[in-house]
Each structure stands twice: as C-alpha cells, then as structure tokens.
Amino acid sequence: MFRKKESNNHQELDMNRIPKHIAIIMDGNGRWAQKRHLPRIAGHKRGMETVKTITKAASQLGVKVLSLYAFSTENWKRPEEEVSYLMSLPGKFFNSFVPELIANNVQVNVMGEIDRLPKATQEVVNQAIQDTADCDGMVLNFALNYGSRREMVLATRKIAKAVQSGKVEIDEIDADLFSKSLMTGKFGANADPELLIRTSGEQRISNFLLWQIAYSELSFTDELWPDFSADSLKQAIYQFQNRDRRFGGIKTNK
Ligand code: IPE
Ligand code: IPE
Ligand code: MG
C-alpha cells in the first residue's frame, strides 16, 4: 500500500537543498479582513504577525535571503487612509520585533526608494538597518516603495553614468554588471531568488524582481497572507525540492 507523503513535514525536506533566496509576494491581507467584515487595515496588521512567523521559520531553515514585497510603487494608488496605515507598519513591526531579529541573527535590508517614504518611516527603517547591521545570519530584505521597472531604470542610469565618466566601456555592459547594479546586487551569489511564492491565488508578478526571477521556481498558493504559516513555507520548499530545474539544459539523472 502506498503511504501518502507528508509533504509539509519538516523531516521530509532536504536540509542541504533549502533555497538560499526566497522571495514572497505577500498578498491577500485585504480579502482576509473583508471575509471577516473587518477594515482592510486589520488584514495588514494580521499580515505583519505572519511576517514575524515566516521570518523566524525561514531563518531557522537556513535561508540566506528572504525578500518580502511589502509596498509596491503602484500601491500609492490606494486610499490615503490605507497608505498611511501601511507606512506606519514598519514602525510597529520593528519596535516590537528588532530584539527577536537580533536574537535570531537576522539582518534587515530595505530595497526601494526609501527617500520617498514619509520621514518617520525612513527613520524607523534606517534605525532597524543600523540595529541589525552586525547580524550575519539571514538577510530580511523588505521591498518598500519598490517596483522592478523603476529598479531597472535606476540601474540603467547608474551604468550610463559610469560609461559617461569613463569608468565602464560600453562593451563591458553585460548581464553580470546589470545584476550588480540592481538593488539586489549586494547579495552577490544570492541576488536571484531560487523560489518565488505568491499567496492569495493571484498568478502574476506585479512588478516584483522581474530580472531576478528569470529562472526562479514559482509557487502560487490560494492561502491569504495572514493565513500563511511555517508549514505553508515548508510545503512550498518541498514543492521546490521536487521540481526539475533545467536552466535550458536537459534532464540529468542525479
Ligand atoms: C497585500 O495585501 C499587502 C499589500 C499589497 C500592501 P492586499 O492589501 O493587496 O490584499 P488584497 O489583495 O486586497 O486582498
Ligand atoms: C503586490 O500586491 C504588491 C505587494 C504585495 C506589496 P498587489 O495587491 O498590490 O498586486 P495587484 O494589484 O493584485 O497586482
Ligand atoms: Mg493584493
């Protein structure tokens, strides 16, 4: 008789093949709240608790970079009340969570145009970066006021300036230089996520890490972000470990 594999059981994961960089499009907070007849911001508040759970779980599994899409360049279109609540969330998050981040040796990074955020948000974000600067375990990389097209435009400008000033020859512009010029460039060999997860049943990328996900495995789940758990994360990693990544080559039997 066949026994059903417990695919979300930690024991089943190959701890030597945990993705080094996992990116998550944390979606569905609003719907989670609406289902409960609560205001959308209640969903964002609950979603913040999920961020804590998933950060600890990923760090314990040995993930090196966890990139979380928290606010896109398009999210400014939302009602002012919601935007302003979202801008207050980093403060609420870091005020209560920095000691645990330090205890777990997690370093905070933020990618996006931080200087366009409200001053108070910039301050708490920069403080968290500073407070965790000596941690050298997992990097918790928040995408805040981030959009991949904007990121690529900024990288292009950076490279153009380097050419203009004679530091780079046009023929030296290649995929590697472009990667390094993106906001994920600082993660070196871990710049590209191996696994991209999106919650809430939507199957689109919404301007997240377009260049970096060229060969990422994509995992879509119907779970809404506030319902996403450590087990859901393990389930996605399990799926990842059972995919055949060919990178344009052919199947190898290993
Ligand atoms: C994701 O949840 C959080 C942000 C985009 C800030 P949503 O707020 O997009 O939730 P839904 O998609 O409306 O349910
Ligand atoms: C993507 O979610 C952005 C974040 C999770 C921060 P959205 O809810 O903004 O994306 P769309 O509008 O459904 O594409
Ligand atoms: Mg959404």
Task: Provide an overview of this structure.
- The protein has 254 residues and is an alpha/beta fold.
- The chain has a single domain, classed as 3-Layer(aba) Sandwich (Undecaprenyl pyrophosphate synthetase), CATH 3.40.1180.10.
- The protein is 40% helix and 13% strand.
- It contains 7 helices and 6 strands, in the order E-H-H-E-H-E-H-E-H-H-E-E-H.
- It has a 6-stranded parallel sheet, sandwiched between helices.
- Helix 4 (119-131) links the parallel strand 3 and strand 4 (139-146).
- The radius of gyration is 19 Å and the shape is globular.
- The chain starts with 20 loop residues before the first strand and ends in a 13-residue tail after the last helix.
- Residues 1-7 have low confidence and may be disordered.
- One 3-methylbut-3-enyl trihydrogen diphosphate (IPE) binds next to helix 1.
Summary keywords:
7 helices, globular, disordered N terminus, binds magnesium ion, Undecaprenyl pyrophosphate synthetase, single chain, alpha/beta, 254 residues, six-stranded parallel beta sheet, 6 strands, binds 3-methylbut-3-enyl trihydrogen diphosphate
